[in-house]
Specification:
Elements: E1 4-7, H1 14-25, E2 30-34, H2 41-44, E3 49-51, H3 57-66, E4 71-74, H4 80-85, H5 87-108, E5 111-113, E6 116-117, H6 141-160, E7 164-165, E8 167-169, E9 171-173, H7 186-197, E10 199-202, E11 210-214, H8 215-226, E12 239-240, E13 244-246, H9 248-256, E14 263-266, H10 270-278, H11 286-292, H12 300-315
Helix pairs in contact: 3-5, 5-6, 7-9
């Protein structure tokens, strides 16, 4: 049975992943952790929570040994937009935090799952159907740390036999937790504003396509890859995965099928737009499909219908 530690567990992915993992592996076998001293009630009441700074290698190791951890899901990171405003902090947490996790995994014999990102690509990468193996020359600190992280995880697998695995996440969309400072965050905020105000001002320009994914598919990808037969994994760190690619106006069209008077306008943020322009329009995920059977369940229409329904219930509002 897996005994799993989730770092960065109070972020957009972690808050949903922890509860899913507890449902699959048992509450007692999934330890939630974050730098925060406390956690939401639903996490504390269903299992163990540990306050852990991933930059504190000693404490990280102590927690892993205390709970007999054999699998670390490492989510603690500074994301793209915040990373550009605080590049030194982004490097410290994203690189040194990952190094500490890999060292603890080497010492304890644990596996490591850590996500990479579409930010690992750059302006010189093919924009459409970006291949699994291609040039990676990102122009953001976040992207630099993601490329380096992929290589570092490969090194620990090849040099020490650590079972490292990861995916390159596109922008992630969820109604349960707000995103944490990424370039694709508009694709979450637009739903909130559609329900609350029937309008949204996008900081990403019209026509800017980016790969996106609904959170249930992101969570599914983590579980599927963690359970994949290692003998079939030619690649490990990290797999392209894809579900849908759209620009802000495409999302607005879907929202207007449910909220006809919704309106979208633009006030482009130059920093986030420059980041978005450096990323792929769409990813080729055929390698993930071939090596471990990746297949998303949500497209833009199915996601929009579910997001609006669930978010309206969460906000206590109606939109029809």
């Amino acid at each position: 049975m897996k005994k799993i530690l989730v770092t960065g567990g109070l972020g957009q992915i972690g808050t949903e992943l922890i509860m899913t993992l507890r449902g699959v592996y048992g509450n007692e076998n999934v330890i939630a952790s974050s730098i925060e001293p406390d956690c939401p009630d639903f996490i504390r009441e269903t299992g163990v929570y540990e306050s852990v700074d991933v930059l504190d290698a000693k404490k990280l190791g102590e927690v892993c040994r205390k709970h007999d951890i054999n699998q670390i899901v490492h989510l603690a990171a500074i994301l793209s937009a915040v990373g550009e405003s605080k590049p030194q902090l982004a490097y410290d947490i994203n690189m040194n935090g990952l190094f500490n996790v890999l060292e603890v995994a080497r010492e304890t014999g644990s596996g490591v799952f850590t996500p990479s990102s579409i930010a690992a690509f750059g302006p010189s990468t093919p924009k459409d159907m970006t291949p699994q193996d291609t040039v990676q020359r990102p122009t953001t600190m976040y992207g630099v740390t993601k490329v380096a992280g992929e290589l570092l995880c490969d090194y620990y697998h090849q040099r020490y036999g650590v079972d490292t695995r990861g995916v390159r996440f596109p922008g992630l969309i969820s109604y349960k937790a707000l995103p944490g400072g990424g370039t694709t965050d508009y694709a979450v905020h637009i739903y909130y504003e559609a329900i609350k105000n029937r309008k949204y001002t996008s900081y990403i320009a019209q026509g800017t396509k980016m790969d996106m994914m609904y959170m249930p598919d992101a969570i599914k990808s983590i579980l599927d890859l963690m359970e994949a037969d290692p003998s079939k994994l030619i690649h490990r760190n990290a797999f392209n995965i894809a579900a849908m690619s759209f620009a802000p106006e495409d999302l607005a069209v879907e929202i207007m099928k449910h909220i006809p008077d919704f309106r979208l306008d633009y006030a482009v943020d130059p920093v986030r737009q420059e980041i978005a322009d450096s990323w792929p329009n769409s990813l080729d995920d055929s390698t993930a499909r071939a090596e471990w059977g990746w297949k998303p369940e949500y497209d833009i229409a199915k996601m929009t219908a579910d997001m609006l329904e669930k978010l309206a219930e969460k906000l206590g509002k109606t939109y029809k």
